[in-house]
Amino acid sequence: MRSLDYIMTKLTFTPLYAQIKSSILHRIAAREWGPGSFLPSEMALAAEYGVSQGTLRKALNELTQEKRLVRFQGKGTAVAVLDADSTMFPFFMLYDVKGHRVYPLSRTTAIQHDAASREEASALNIAQGSEVIRIHRIRVLDEQPVINEFIVLPVARFPNFTCNLNKLPNTLYEQYYQRFGVFVIKATEVLQAVLADAQDQKFLHLKYELPLLEVQRKAFDIDGAVVEFRRSRINTRHHQYRICQ
């Protein structure tokens, strides 16, 4: 009969390639390798980690699929440059009716400091009433408002966050990394159908209480801490929100 210690070791075992993948992500987050810079050769990295090149390559392949790295034929592997595609992938899945991926522009209407509500505190794993930053934005496609979006950030992770509407970039994840060293690596989402409220009707230019898709998203950093709570209300009349694996 196997011991409980053996069973627990078996259940918590992490594949070696996954450990290497996590280590590389931590090194990117620590800015050992910045956006656009090349990693050491596969042979050198494999030797550094004490693994076969096949094991290392599996880790690099997954990071490439996740748009964290870019492979250049004959040149090597580089850290992906944080642009609209890489910072939103895989956290934003909006498509037009023809099946083309679309990336809306953002119009920020408000940035303010406030106290976290019970729901926000629970989502961010902070105490109720803790200081947070509230951001309200409208996402626009073809000059038409499509998404009414609310973002909540813990001040403790984002000190001196700008309150200047004109200085907030279209893709916030880039700013999280560049200014605050917060590297978002995954997000979880809860989707539900809702009716447009008065605010949705105002900002999305709706005449009626039309059904909207509400996406509640929590974004996590490299250590698994929640760094952002976001609620997006999407008019899917001419667009689709897809879940891709």
CATH architecture of the largest domain: 3-Layer(aba) Sandwich
Strand order of the largest sheet: 4-5-6-9-8-7
Q: State the helix count.
A: 8
CATH fold topology of the largest domain: Chorismate lyase
Radius of gyration: 21 Å
CATH superfamily of the largest domain: Chorismate lyase-like
**pLDDT < 50 stretches:** 6-11, 84-89
Question: Care to describe what's here?
Answer:
- The chain is an alpha+beta fold.
- It folds into 2 domains: 4-79, Arc Repressor Mutant, subunit A, CATH 1.10.10; 84-241, 3-Layer(aba) Sandwich (Chorismate lyase).
- The chain is built from 8 helices and 10 strands.
- It has helices at 4-12, 16-29, 42-49, 53-65, 84-88, 118-124, 172-180, 198-203; strands at 69-72, 76-79, 94-96, 105-115, 131-141, 144-154, 184-195, 211-221, 226-234, 239-241.
- The chain has a 6-stranded antiparallel sheet.
- The longest helix has 14 residues, at 16-29.
- It is globular and about 60 Å long.
- The relative contact order is 0.12.
